[in-house]
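Need a sequence for this fold. Nothing fancy.
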């Protein structure tokens, strides 16, 4: 016997829970079931990120990232205030360490203002030192909208509200097979099966796999990158007052190492970005032969590697050499020493790469039949989650009837 639900949502991270909440709010009589393969919510990307509430500084004006980050950021601040979730709107400093970085800093400021970030403040070297006494740079930008929060706590609150409104959350329930039926979709997991009238895929690191289980043939593939962090010792944490970021290189796919003061007042330094040998590979020794073979068999991975092999070597160098990691941090804070740092956590980013080896820069959400698939939702997806949830609810409401 299979259990019947009107809508199945696969993935218990922040995007899945935000989508479930948005759809339930609009359709209070709908039977919605959220499936999470782990024994708890927010077990992967949501629970392993740095907790930054992004302002919307980096994203191309008019892109889905820019639109949802800016609206989602304010919705997230309101959600946290309404539900008593600890958070801080602490602001961040972006630092140009030499003249070559000033044009990129100016472009960031232009993008930020185009995305509606009022209150951006350019900082002279003296003003930089006033905000961050240990930072050394020739120019800077203060972004007051940036904040910090525990996204795991946010996700659990979303799920709590969803359940209170009649939604069902099934933990420890991986979906291993999806079959199209006349009335919708048959989902099979473990020893259970579920009939669903519609399906939403928010599976994050496994989003492309779920899409293929459902009969789609996306030309992109998730390539997992592990980000490794150090943490400042308690006695060294006063070296950082806000969040401190470098000016990103527009030719490179990642932001570079930075400092983040967390909601628990610890300070993270990092991350680097190295290929993960397993989709859930949080440690160097985590290797899945099947995951690794799929990555290595994907032509887009090799085309990406051909473009960024020098960067890859640098990132692996930092992964295996604390001295090299410290040297990269010293560009922002020259006083940092190796004995200021202890090993921190890590996270795995689900980065969508197309067959040409291009990183998908924007969120990528598609509809097919009575399904919605979130195939790329990297940072700032957590910040934008409530807004993305509304977008997914819009797409769900537009799906064809059976």
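Here you go.
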């Amino acid at each position: 016997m299979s259990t019947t639900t009107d809508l199945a949502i696969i993935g218990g991270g922040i995007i899945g829970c935000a989508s479930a909440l948005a759809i339930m709010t609009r359709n209070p009589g709908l039977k919605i079931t959220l499936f999470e393969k782990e024994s708890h919510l927010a077990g992967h990307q949501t629970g392993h990120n740095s907790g930054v509430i992004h302002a919307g500084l980096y994203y191309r004006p008019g892109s889905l990232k820019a639109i949802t980050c800016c609206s989602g950021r304010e919705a997230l601040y309101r959600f946290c205030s309404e539900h008593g979730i600890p958070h801080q709107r602490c602001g961040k400093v972006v630092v140009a360490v030499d003249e070559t970085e000033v044009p990129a800093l100016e472009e960031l400021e232009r993008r930020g203002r185009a995305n509606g970030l009022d209150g951006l403040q350019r900082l002279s070297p003296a003003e930089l030192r006033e905000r961050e006494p240990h930072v050394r740079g020739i120019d800077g930008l203060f972004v007051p909208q940036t904040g910090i929060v525990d996204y795991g706590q946010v996700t659990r609150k979303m799920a709590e509200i969803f359940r209170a409104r009649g939604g069902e959350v099934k933990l420890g329930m991986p979906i291993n097979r999806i079959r199209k039926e006349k009335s919708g979709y048959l989902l099979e997991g473990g020893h259970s099966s579920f009939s669903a009238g519609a399906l939403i895929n928010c599976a994050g690191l496994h989003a492309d796999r779920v899409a293929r289980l459902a009969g789609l043939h996306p030309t992109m593939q998730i390539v997992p990158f592990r980000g490794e962090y150090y943490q400042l010792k308690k006695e060294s944490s006063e070296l950082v007052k806000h969040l401190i970021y470098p000016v990103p290189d527009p030719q490179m796919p990642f932001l570079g190492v930075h400092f983040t003061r967390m909601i628990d007042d610890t300070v993270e330094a990092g991350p680097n970005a190295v290929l993960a040998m397993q989709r859930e590979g949080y440690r160097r020794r985590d290797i899945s032969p099947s995951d690794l073979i799929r990555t290595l068999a994907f032509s887009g991975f090799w085309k990406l590697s051909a473009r960024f092999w020098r960067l890859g070597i640098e990132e692996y160098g930092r992964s295996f050499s604390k001295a090299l990691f410290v040297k990269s941090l010293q560009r922002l804070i020259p006083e940092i020493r190796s004995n200021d740092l202890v090993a921190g956590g890590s996270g795995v980013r689900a980065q969508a790469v197309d067959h040409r080896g291009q990183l998908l820069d924007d969120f990528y959400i598609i509809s097919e039949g009575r399904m919605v698939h979130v195939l790329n939702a990297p940072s700032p997806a957590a910040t934008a989650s409530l807004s993305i949830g509304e977008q997914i609810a819009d797409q769900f409401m537009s799906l064809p009837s059976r």
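For context: The domain at 1-87+146-219+361-402 is CATH 3.50.50.60 (FAD/NAD(P)-binding domain).
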